[in-house]
Structures are given as structure tokens and as C-alpha cells.
Amino acid sequence: MLNLYSNGVRGSTLLLRPTTLVRPHSASTASIASDLSEGCLVNNPALSSGAASTPTTLTKVPVCRSAEKKNSRNSTIDFFKEFGLDDSQVEKIGKSHPNLLRSKVEKTLIPKIRVLEDFGICGSELISVIASNPSLLNFSTKNLLGKLDFLKSILGSVENVRNCIIKETNRLSSNSLTKVLQPNLELLKSYGISDERLQKLLVKDPWCLCYNPERVQESLVGVEQVLGIPRESGMFLQGYKAMVSLRKRDLELKFELFKRYGWSESDVLVMAKRSPQCLCISEAKLKTGMDFFLNKLGYEIGFLAERATLLSFSMEERILPRYAVLQVLQERKLMKKIPSIFTVMSISESRFLDAYVLPFKDNLPELYEAYAGGNKSVDSSVQKEKGKQ
To answer: Which DSSP letter does residue 353 get?
Structure first.
């Protein structure tokens, strides 16, 4: 058996575990389920014994008798569980928003959930929103609807609003949208960022628009003056996200770290212009990456500065396993042309398998076994390949 990890480091398992948002109904839960099953809050099969052909809206929810009889923490917890949240999600709400567990179900929680459903967020999507962003339930029904309508006016669809509030779990809902979000959008527009790009930014990375406008303004100036990225550049928004997420001292410490490894100021600026997101990588990870590429493999600083995304890859899950495969292929003289290290590390897992592992599986089965043994993400890629055949 080939040992692809002679240095003792093995790739760790990379598995995506599906999160179950709908808690299976059990006979031991509170009687609230029987009340809600008559007029289901969401299209949730866990709340009724039979499959409903048409989801029933909240306007048909009957009076929640258990909540009326005992307006207590336990009844609220039972409500959330019967609504579809699992134990860990309810526990998370209890830690981050303990006041919600003291809320009155019928008078406080249901009207706000009704606002979300009437807005168009329902079924499993509604469960996801509440699980990800329970702070929405802290607003009054009037303020909640106002925030939703405001976001829709910018994002254009209910789906975009849902994705936005799921990703930004705190700041987007707690900040005043008209005093924070709107001024920030106007600031980015003044730098030439189009409405379309702003919409995509708000859906994908809403966090970067939730800082106070003064910090956003300073960050925008810093992208040009500190990182040297002009506003016309396609990397300007990447530079902005890096600048706004780092305080001045943190940025100075990152620059100092690169210089300790021999980088000149021009090298650092080349890296910042090409891969500004690398400034957000932890110091420990940057050290590990530079030790490997500069000290062990002997690459020049200029080479790494122009390909700094190499520093963002996982050493255990990607860099070491792939480099070990290349070593084996070179030792066995199975490669006609030695590929670029940047290409090898940057391509997707399936493409790497196609090019450097699967073609040699019959003649060198131990190569595949050793690589797969240290990089379990191979399994999903292989299954995809089988599905194509």
C-alpha cells in the first residue's frame, strides 16, 4: 500500500451532513400538535398524520389551546418543536434569544409567523428562516413587514429576501435598514457598483453591508488607497469585503506577517490586488501555506504572490493529498508533462480524479486507495462519475 502521507498528516473527512429541520412528530410532545394539525402553520408533514394536498395558510390556524392554558417557557418550547425545529435549534434560540421562549405563542409568535407566510415564505423555507434568524420574531409585526418589503424593493423577489435573511442571522435584522443598509448601498453605488451587482452582493454576502456607514466609507477608500485596487476593477468588491471585515491593526499584522517571510511591499500589493480575500485567512493558515510552498517546495515569493489563492486551500484535505499523488506519478514516470502546481491545486475534485487518479486506477490501484483513504471527499466525486456512465 502506498503511503501518501509520509509526514504523518492525513486528509480529514469532508462530508456534508444534511441538517434535518423538520422534527419527527412523536406521541410524547405537547398537545399543541393536535391543535395545529387542524390548520397547519406550514406545509410540514411532521405536523399531521396525513399528507395534505394543499398547504393551509396561517389565517386558518385555530386558537392554540395549550398556549392559552399555560403561557410558560415549556409551552413555547413545545410550540417551536411542533412547528418543526429540532432540539438543538430550540436550544440555540434559548441561548441567543431567551426572551422568545417567554413569549406568548398566540399573541406574539403566531402573528409574526403569519407575516412571514403571507409575505411568501412558507413550508420548509419558513422553518429554515426561523431556525437561522429567530431575531426576526423580536420585531413588531409592523416593523417586520416593513423590513421585508424594504428588502424586496431592493432584491426584487421573495426568494432573494429569504436567502438574504437566512445568511445574515443577526446584523441585517437588528440594524435599521434605512439608517445602515440604504446608506451603504448608496455609498457603493457612488463607486460605480451597479444595482445588479449590489443585489447579488446583498443576497450572497449581506454581512458586508451591515457595518456602520462610516466604516464602509473608510473601507471603500482603503480598497483604492491601501490595497491599490481601482474601483473599475472586477476585484474591487472582493477588496471591499476584505477591508470592511478587518480592522486597521489586523490588516497591519497581516502585512507584517508576509514581510517576515521575505515579501516586499510590492509583493504584498500584488497579492492584495489579485487575491484580496487572502488577507482574511488566519495567521496560522498563512504560515502553514507559506512554509509549504516557499520553504519546502522552494517556489519564489513572486510566484506565490500572483497565485495567492493557493494559501486559501486546506493543507490536510487538498494540498498534501494532491501533492503526494503528483510525487508518486513522477516517481513512476507516468506523467508525460509535469503540470503547474497552481492548476493541480485549483481544479475541482472531479477534474483532479479524472486527470491524475482514475486513469491509473487499474495499473496502480494502490494510488487510488491511498488517495481515497486520506481524502474522503473522493467518494462523492466517484459516485458522480459513475452516474455519468
So the answer is: I
